[in-house]
Automatic annotation (TrEMBL):
Function summary: Adenine glycosylase active on G-A mispairs. MutY also corrects error-prone DNA synthesis past GO lesions which are due to the oxidatively damaged form of guanine: 7,8-dihydro-8-oxoguanine (8-oxo-dGTP).
Molecular-function annotations in GO: 4 iron, 4 sulfur cluster binding; 8-oxo-7,8-dihydroguanine DNA N-glycosylase activity; adenine/guanine mispair binding; metal ion binding; oxidized purine DNA binding; purine-specific mismatch base pair DNA N-glycosylase activity
Cofactor binding annotation: Binds 1 [4Fe-4S] cluster.
Similarity field: Belongs to the Nth/MutY family.
CDD domains: ENDO3c, NUDIX_DNA_Glycosylase_C-MutY
PANTHER family in the cross-refs: ADENINE DNA GLYCOSYLASE
Keyword 4Fe-4S found: yes
EC class name: hydrolase
Descriptive protein name: Adenine DNA glycosylase
Length: 357
């Protein structure tokens, strides 16, 4: 057994997490769901979403049979919505191509939508006890510091070296729960000890051989992602009110917020009243401009300019299935992105009547 794996397994027995909801199961469906939710999301945020998903969809068959709208509504607020869309697609693929049996090898699991090498390895470890290396963001940081590997982990050369070290560090004898304990230890160490900022090196089980610690480079390793200013986009959101209902439009999939429900969006500079007449067959009063709302995605920033509009003529209201009229409170139960949720709450549900309505 490697020094790394031996020390981490011992450390995990004393200090690791043992009571997370998905740790009670060997069901690959439950493990897969948790691993997808944990991508770029904190454990404490995931737990209530995981519980609601497992209650609503206790089996992969129930998830496959659900509508995407239902899946997205349960996911609403968790972000990175492509994960939810891929969950739904994968559930249907497993039912269709694998007769409902989740694949049991890392190579096969990795072929499913939305599952990369590290996630596939984690599912193979925790569901089937297989000897596979993981390398998520936390684990990259651990190995970069321990082995003193410079370079941004997102670059191929650095990432390939980290994968090599991850494989070399695996326990040789991995039966009787050792591979599971080791893998969970890596996750726990990265989350609680070898953190990005202010790492707790004095209590780390790997401190005696950690190259970055010896060379006083802990705060420089791993190399940070090269910073580039995020481009900013702007859009107008049309908050159309008709008999205390608001209009929502289902976004096309794929794309940003694909499959989610949002107020109709138009570009800045477009005449709002004319757009409503020509494109939505709706007559409206002059718009009331609301405070802007900023939202940051991974690759750009979005500045939202909400405009509140009272519908004056509903003779030819939209009947297309991608549009719905709904009460603001009911909109919160649908799959809507976080800034839209915030906008609806601030505008319609804050305890004050909507301006001009």
């Amino acid at each position: 057994m490697s020094i790394v794996s031996e020390r981490l397994i011992i450390w995990h027995g004393q200090h690791g997490r043992h009571h997370l909801p998905w740790q009670k199961s060997r069901d690959p469906y439950a493990i897969w769901l948790s691993e997808i939710m944990l991508q770029q999301t904190q454990v404490n945020t995931v737990i209530p979403y995981y519980a609601r998903f497992m209650q609503e969809f206790p089996t992969i068959d129930s998830l496959a049979q659900a509508s995407l709208d239902t899946v997205l509504s349960l996911w609403s607020g968790l972000g990175y919505y492509s994960r939810a869309r891929n969950l739904h697609i994968t559930a249907r693929e497993v039912m269709h191509y694998y007769q409902g049996q989740f694949p049991c090898t890392r190579e096969t699991i990795q072929k499913l939508p939305g599952i990369g090498r590290s996630t596939a390895a984690a599912i193979a470890v925790f569901s089937f006890g297989q000897r596979e290396a993981i390398l998520d963001g936390n684990v990259k940081r651990i190995f970069a510091r321990y082995y003193g590997i410079s370079g941004y982990p997102g670059e191929n050369k650095t990432q390939n070296l980290l994968w090599k070290k991850a494989e070399e560090s695996l326990p040789v004898h991995y039966h009787n729960g050792k591979i599971e304990a080791y893998t969970q230890a890596l996750m726990d160490l990265g989350a609680s000890v070898c953190t990005r900022h202010a790492p707790r090196c004095k209590i780390c089980p790997l401190q005696s051989e950690c190259v970055a610690l010896k060379e006083d480079r802990v705060n420089q390793v791993p190399t940070a992602k090269p910073r580039r200013p995020l481009p900013q986009k702007e859009a107008i959101f049309l908050l159309l009110m008709e008999r205390h209902n608001i209009l929502l439009e289902q976004r096309p999939s794929p794309g940003i917020w694909g499959g989610l429900w949002c107020p109709p969006e138009i570009g800045v500079g477009i005449d709002v009243i004319n757009h409503c007449q020509r494109n939505l067959n709706i007559e409206v009063k002059a718009p009331i401009k609301l405070p802007t709302l900023d939202h940051q995605f991974t690759h750009f920033k979005l500045r939202i300019h909400p405009q509140l509009l009272q519908v004056t003529s509903s003779d030819s209201l939209i009947t297309l299935s991608k549009f719905i009229w709904t009460k603001p409170m009911n909109a919160l139960a649908k799959g809507i992105p976080a800034p839209v949720r915030k906008l609806i709450k601030q505008t319609f549900l804050s305890g004050h009547s909507s301006p001009g309505i």
